[in-house]
Amino acid sequence: MTSSASATASIPDTDTLQTGSGSLAGRLTEAYLAVRGETERRAAPLSPEDQVIQSMPDASPAKWHRAHTTWFFEQFVLGEHCRGYIPFHADYAFLFNSYYVSAGPRHTRGERGLITRPGVADITAYRQHVDAAMADFLGSAEPATLAAVAPLVEVGLNHEQQHQELMLTDILHAFAQNPTAPAYDPSWTFPAPVGRGADWIHLPEGIHTVGHAGDGYHFDNEEPAHRALVGPVGIARNLVTNAEWLAFMDDGGYRTATLWLMDGFAAASREGWQAPGHWYKVEGEWRIMTLGGLRPVDPDAPVCHVSYYEADAFARWRGKHLPTEMEWEVAARGNQLSDAFGIVWQWTRSAYSPYPGYRATEGALGEYNGKFMVNQLVLRGSSLATPAGHSRVTYRNFFYPHHRWQFTGLRLADYA
Fold first, then answer.
1. What are the tens digits of pLDDT across the range 8-46?
2. Are 147 and 295 in a shared domain?
3. Which long-range contacts does 246-250 make (Cβ < 8 Å, 24+ apart)?
4. 116 lies in which domain range?
5. What global pTM score does this model have?
6. Does any domain span residue 184?
7. How many domains does the chain fold into?
């Protein structure tokens, strides 16, 4: 595995599905098989036992990720558009639905790790069955039907890419609970940051268009494009590093209540946070659990596995702020941010809420984003686990402020 999962060449850019060369059926099938193959590539290093474990309610077993993404195509493409299709197994819709209430009842999220059967081999057979059915369907569907299902296939592919990233973050969390610190891939290395230029960039006050505009693929939460007042503000060109975070720790950052939001300090105290997630003190030295196993903390690498609460406290310690998502997007559009993509998702201080004029997609797929627009914070960019073709400047990731098992880091903003 390369240092950055986003560097893999096997995943196509799904923006070309509608406009690329060759037939629409051929483009859809090629993209479908490539994305599905990437999921299996990421699962390949895992044993059957690895694929069953669920280390916390926020994470899911790798087996479940593989099955859920398969259910998505079976439910929304084959089940609704392929005449005569019979589901692979009558119980799988209940077991592998996630949060689509409109699609029927589902198993409790926090108990996915209790399901030992169907086994990994059964899920492999399930994936193969649905893949064959999808290939047959795409290859034989009438042009009007293909045009109707193409957007669903695009959503399904991007949905699966999201779960490809979760497969890595979830198994890393599980392996981090193991005293022997097993490696997902012993050859894995953290991607090197590419800092450049001055430490700060300045955005003068101005009105900018933010959000997705145009024909390229995007999720519904990225639109509509709208005008926003941004600046004046300084944005850190580079990501905060482990060396900077160690200085925060050495200065008592985790113990200084005045730096923290009340809920954040309560979470840090309750959970015993003394360092970022997956950091461990070994013989007096800090180490970090990575996809390559337990490694020494590299002071020059961007800090990751920090919650919003920690990121906000660090910014206060530095006398700075976190940027808003609009500030981040304007700076990123100008190609002024180093390592905006491919290393860590970056916390912003923007609440995850709908853009002005937002309307959720009709039907069950309307549950994909819109119903989560409360009590979460927006992250921008992408991470080392994000698949190729799945990042863009308007992408809005979102997590609760205490979450830190993802590859999450930060850059600073200055309003002085």
1. 434 355 556 666 667 999 999 999 999 999 999 999 999
2. no
3. 246/286, 246/297, 246/299, 248/314, 248/317, 249/274, 249/275
4. 5-176
5. 0.94
6. no
7. 2
